[in-house]
Specification:
4 helices; single chain; alpha/beta; Transcription Regulator spoIIAA
């Protein structure tokens, strides 16, 4: 059974050119337009340096993979970049089999991608047992 795709953008509050787009669910032919719509809007608004948080992606078919490649090309063509954060599971296997790890900058999680942009952690780690450190 298909897991509905959700896509949400979180622009950087102090930077007009950077944004985080979070994708969760099945990235496949029937739903890939949702990512395209959010990404097109971000790029149209000048946010061409995109961190794509894919930690919640549960499935990805060839259409989803093609959309990632299209978004990578589109950001480069607009003097930006695309980083993938949190590649796991099916998407990780697909990227390994297709050797696309060489095409994308990939970080283990969102905080590592944010560290790339800002040079420091922005998301506080939560130790076992609750509250921030």
């Amino acid at each position: 059974m298909s897991v509905p795709l959700t896509v949400a953008e979180t622009p950087f509050p102090d930077d007009l050119h950077h944004t985080v787009i979070t994708v969760a669910g099945d990235l496949e032919k029937p739903s890939v337009h949702l990512l395209r719509k959010v990404a097109d809007q971000a790029i149209t608004n000048g946010r061409t340096k995109i961190i794509l948080n894919v930690h919640g992606v549960t499935f990805c078919d060839s259409t989803g993979l093609r959309e990632l490649l299209t978004l990578l090309r589109q950001t480069y063509e607009n003097s930006g970049w695309l980083r993938l954060a949190g590649v796991t599971g099916v998407l990780e296997r697909l990227m390994t089999l297709t050797r696309l790890y060489d095409a994308f900058p990939v970080d283990p999680d969102l905080n590592a991608s944010l560290r790339y942009v800002y040079g420091r952690d922005l998301i506080p780690e939560t130790p076992p047992g609750g509250g921030p450190r």
